[in-house]
Every structure is written in C-alpha cells, then in structure tokens.
Automatic annotation (TrEMBL):
Signal sequence, renumbered to the chain: none
Species of provenance: Streptococcus pluranimalium
Protein name (record): TetR/AcrR family transcriptional regulator
Parts of the chain that traverse the membrane: none
Domain of life: Bacteria
Lineage: Bacteria, Bacillati, Bacillota, Bacilli, Lactobacillales
Length: 168
C-alpha cells in the first residue's frame, strides 16, 4: 500500500479516536472528522462510504489479531485450558487498545463469537464444541449483565468456571 494512503488512513483513524472520546458515533459527522484529520471530504469518501463504514473497517482491522490467533492456534481437546488463557489475553489486548471503536458491546461480542465459530478446529469432538459454545455463551451473558466490565473477583470466578467446564 502507498505510504500516502497509509498516512491518510492513520490520520482518519486518529481523528476518529479523538472525536470518539467526546462523542457517540451517531454524533460524529464526516465534515467534523475531515476537519480534525486535516483532509478533504473527497479524500474521506475515496476510502469510506460513511462513518459507519469507517467504524466497520476499523473494527475488522482491530479484530484481525483475534482471527489470526484462532487460525494459528486451533482448539485441541487436550489443551482447552491453555486455549482459554491465550484467547482471553488476546481479546483483552485487542479491546483494551481499541475501546473507541467498540461502542456497541453486543455487536462487538457477537463479532468475536462469530470469529470463534468460523475458525474452530474441525478435529474437536462434538462434546468439546458444546463445552466451548457453553463457555463462550456464558461469558457473553456475564459480560452483558455486568455492563461489559468485570472486577478481579468476577474475572477469577469466570476463569474458575471455565476450568470446571473444560476439566474432564
């Protein structure tokens, strides 16, 4: 990719993140974003159809490390605990570094779980798939019920439950 394109897209992303700190996505307009990024509207529209397209592309870019992790580390029945540990770290890093992109937590978690479904290893038994689905669904519900933040005790409890689910 051309260095100018990379610089322009970075300027757009940085401007979006700055604006997102003060405003919900619905209140960020292309005009304001372009002013903040020091670009013309035509430049913005060369890469994105609207703000929501920008957000979608930035989310996809941010989720790529999770996708890569899942592709490079297929779930193995005998090693589910390690998988859970590793995926938790990967997901925490991605979302921690990209909070401005993920304002709709339901949609974000749904995208993460879709990635999991798309990349789960074929050589995992039906029981292992059910355990993983149960754990993922449970984690989703717990996060949703706690406004997407967990304190240390809640994280420890969730981790202990995961260990039980994957223990034979």
């Amino acid at each position: 990719m051309d260095k100018r394109v990379i610089k322009t897209k970075k300027a757009i992303k940085d401007a979006f993140v700055r604006l997102r700190q003060d405003k919900p996505i619905e209140k960020i307009y292309v005009e304001n974003l372009c002013r903040e990024a020091l670009i013309n509207k035509s430049t913005f529209y060369r890469y994105y159809t609207d703000i929501y397209d920008l957000v979608e592309q930035l989310q996809e870019e941010a989720l790529e490390p999770i996708r890569q992790f899942l592709l490079e580390n297929p779930v193995k029945e005998e090693d589910m605990e390690t998988f859970v540990d590793d995926i938790e770290v990967t997901i925490s890093q991605v979302y921690g570094h990209n909070k401005a992109l993920f304002s709709n937590q339901d949609e974000t978690l749904e995208k993460t779980f879709q990635l999991y479904q798309e990349t789960i290893s074929e050589n995992v038994s039906e029981e292992a798939r059910l355990r993983l689905s149960f754990a993922v669904g449970g984690a989703y519900t717990i996060l949703k019920n706690n406004q997407y933040t967990l304190n240390k005790d809640q994280k420890d409890t969730l981790y202990a439950l995961f260990k039980r689910i994957f223990a034979d």
